[in-house]
Amino acid sequence: MTLELNLLQERELGRLIDYERATCTVKGELVYRCAFPYRPDDDLQCELIERGALARRPDERRGSVVSITSDGYSYFPAKEREEAESRRRSLREVRLVGLAALFSAACVVIGFLLGRFLA
Fold this sequence. Notes:
The chain is of the alpha+beta class. The protein is built from three helices and five strands, in the order H-E-E-E-H-E-E-H. The chain has helices at residues 7-23, 43-51, 70-118, and strands at residues 25-26, 29-30, 36-37, 54-59, 63-68. The N and C termini lie far apart (61 Å).
């Protein structure tokens, strides 16, 4: 994942993406990208621009506007993939530990039985 966002930044980016999907789509297809007004006094917006989730560009009619970048759009799917991979690795480790415990228990039982019958 290329972006590192804190919780407030994630919420703002999610809000902007949801707003765009609600107002700029027809039958689930993105028709055009929204341009949001640039607000230099909005610290959260400035942080998202600095991180690369939003991009500032000039607009002839409205001055400067902000739009969501491709990194901004891919942030949540990439985060979800990363979390799924982490869950998969964790489950794999649990299985390995369980298998090792089962194998060691079997070794203890076999050792006990061998010691009992060979003594």
